[in-house]
């Protein structure tokens, strides 16, 4: 086929001259473009001529199979020699062959586009027109030429595209040769290395991925991400800033995925398309369901099927979102699915991106679970705190009451309460020996028992003994230090079960400690309590306090102690109960440098 080879060499020379003319005279492109379109027609004619030559080529005696193989070999040589991009498509628009010039212009590795849908390279607004031209060429056999835009690997090309029907040896169906002549793009120099394959670019990409993991860790480990449900939003916002045009998070709720977060490109208003993506049903997405089922991510470097992510009123979601590349990874261990979408004009996601985003998905899942667990525990702690301390103190006739309560470093086990009893009012204060939820629940049980039993018994000591019996029967293994008092007129009868003695602050500043005593509740079936009756005159203040107050320590390890408490109280003579408890707390705060390890309770009752 010497004539054809000679014609191809001549075509290559003229195309090279047109490139030089375009570079030399960028302001006067019209003559160059007209000539380029003429050369495009010449290329299409040469393809048709090559087809006819192959058809007429004599077959060897060895049989039809060898002749077909020889024709295919000749066609491949012609395809490689063409100086303009040539893509061989089947009837469905799937790429079957490309020549080296196509790889160079589009920036794809050899063979990357083979097996992929060519219309996905075409600008979204012109895909329908391309499919119509393709169908017409296949049905009529008449060539077609038209202008369109191709987008791939972050590059956009305006091209003049010529379609010619082919009959390929050994192929049962007819093919189409698409010849593309770029008209508005600066072609890379022959043999130039793709920028994304350079060592520097690879190192930069690796650094960006490592930076993403570092920044994601900071976002998810922030204290606010535990206190409030913001981890998923913050992570999605970080990904949308640099890694994707769209970020969608679907979390599993009640066994099914539910759309939780949608981050759209900045140039999209909140309404319209964004609302359609938000309202779309994740269960209609094959991608989401596949990732949930497999428990592993997937990457579509080029979207072949626009229906994979479901539909909205305007059509397939991936189509209306302008998706060129998609990456989906599980959140946690099948707690949800994170979907990232890039448009056609951005470099596609790669396998290296999939690896780092799978780690990000795992981190997000751990953060969401930690936040959920933390909030559950916080709600439980709040409920337990509410069960060991009243929200407001009631008015006790003839007295003023005030209290301060500071939780420690763990769930509180101290309690205090003021409640009505038969013929008067009662109060109680104490705490289980221990920390955490179990100790708090035991304290809540004791507090509730004292309150309930005081309705029927008029003696706090009888109530204390019954609570002890119940606690021993429950077999919690914990003991509780407690004190309970019944107020009737000016008399207060108190029963102490191993609790610190109360303090009586007199109007002249004198301080006297009560007897206290007894054995903590829950140790023995037979309770051992200390009982005494105090008379509270107007102006006198009865003060009760927790173990956490007097055991607070300073930086030298010295305990706060009862002597320091007595000194503070003596300076509060004649003060209201609210002033007294605040003064004690302020002094303890100064003494311990603001540190609080165990719960602190201070309760004051002043006769008026």
TrEMBL record:
Source organism, top-level taxon: Bacteria
InterPro entries: Bact_Sigma-Reg, GAF, GAF-like_dom_sf, PAS, PAS-like_dom_sf, PAS_4, PPM-type-like_dom_sf, PPM-type_phosphatase-like_dom
Alphabetical UniProt keywords: Hydrolase
Residue span, PAS domain: 71-141
Pfam families, alphabetized: GAF, PAS_4, SpoIIE
SUPFAM superfamilies attached to this UniProt entry: GAF domain-like (SSF55781), PYP-like sensor domain (PAS domain) (SSF55785)
Protein name, UniProt field: SpoIIE family protein phosphatase
Organism in which the protein naturally occurs: Nonomuraea composti
């Amino acid at each position: 086929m010497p004539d054809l080879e000679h014609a191809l060499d001549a075509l290559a020379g003229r195309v090279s001259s047109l490139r030089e003319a375009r570079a030399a005279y960028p302001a006067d492109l019209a003559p160059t473009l007209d000539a380029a379109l003429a050369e495009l027609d010449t290329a299409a004619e040469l393809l048709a001529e090559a087809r006819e030559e192959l058809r007429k080529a004599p077959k060897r005696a060895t049989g039809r199979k060898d002749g077909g193989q020889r024709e295919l070999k000749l066609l491949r040589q012609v395809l490689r020699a063409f100086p303009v991009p040539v893509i061989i498509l089947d009837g469905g628009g799937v790429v079957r062959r490309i020549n080296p010039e196509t790889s160079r212009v589009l920036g794809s590795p050899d063979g990357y586009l083979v097996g992929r849908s060519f219309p996905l390279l075409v600008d979204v607004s012109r895909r329908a027109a391309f499919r119509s031209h393709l169908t017409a060429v296949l049905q009529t056999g008449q060539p077609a030429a038209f202008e369109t835009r191709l987008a791939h690997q972050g590059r956009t090309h305006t091209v003049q595209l010529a379609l010619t029907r082919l009959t390929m040896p050994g192929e049962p169906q007819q093919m189409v040769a698409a010849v593309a002549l770029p008209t508005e793009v600066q072609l890379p120099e022959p043999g130039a290395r793709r920028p994304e394959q350079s060592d520097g670019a690879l190192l930069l990409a690796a650094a960006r991925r490592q930076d993403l993991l570092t920044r994601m860790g900071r976002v998810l480990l922030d204290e606010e991400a535990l206190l409030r449900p913001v981890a998923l939003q913050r992570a999605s916002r970080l990904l949308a800033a640099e890694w994707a045009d769209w970020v969608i998070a679907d979390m599993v709720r009640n066994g099914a995925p539910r759309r939780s977060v949608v981050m759209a490109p900045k140039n999209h208003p909140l309404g319209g398309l964004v609302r359609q993506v938000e309202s779309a049903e994740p269960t209609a997405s094959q991608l989401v369901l596949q990732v949930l089922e497999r428990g592993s991510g997937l990457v579509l470097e080029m979207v072949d099927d626009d229906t994979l992510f479901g539909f909205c009123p305007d059509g397939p979601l991936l189509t209306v979102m302008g998706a060129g590349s998609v990456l989906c990874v599980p959140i946690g261990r099948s707690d949800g699915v994170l979907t990232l979408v890039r448009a056609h004009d951005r470099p596609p996601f790669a396998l290296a991106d999939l690896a780092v985003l799978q780690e990000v998905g795992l981190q997000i899942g751990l953060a969401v679970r930690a936040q959920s667990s933390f909030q559950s525990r916080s709600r439980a702690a709040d409920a337990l705190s509410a069960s060991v301390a009243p929200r407001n103190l009631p008015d006790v006739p003839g007295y003023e009451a005030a209290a301060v309560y500071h939780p420690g470093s763990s769930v509180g086990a101290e309690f205090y309460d003021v409640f009505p009893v038969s013929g008067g009012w009662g109060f109680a204060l104490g705490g289980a020996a221990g920390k955490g939820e179990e100790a708090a629940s035991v304290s809540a049980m004791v507090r509730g028992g004292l309150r309930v039993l005081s309705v029927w018994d008029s003696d706090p000591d009888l109530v204390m003994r019954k609570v002890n019996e119940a606690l021993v029967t429950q077999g919690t293994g914990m003991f509780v230090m407690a004190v309970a008092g019944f107020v009737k007129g000016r008399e207060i009868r108190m029963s102490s079960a191993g609790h610190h003695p109360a303090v009586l602050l007199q109007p002249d500043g004198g301080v006297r400690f009560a007897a206290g005593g007894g054995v903590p509740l829950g140790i023995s079936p037979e309770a051992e309590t200390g009982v005494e009756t105090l008379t509270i005159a107007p102006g006198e203040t009865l003060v009760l306090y927790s173990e956490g107050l007097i055991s607070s320590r300073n930086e030298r390890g010295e305990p706060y102690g009862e002597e320091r408490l007595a000194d503070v109280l003596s300076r509060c003579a004649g003060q209201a109960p609210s002033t007294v408890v605040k003064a004690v707390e302020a002094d303890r705060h100064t003494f311990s440098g603001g540190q609080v390890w165990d719960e602190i309770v201070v309760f004051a009752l002043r006769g008026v």
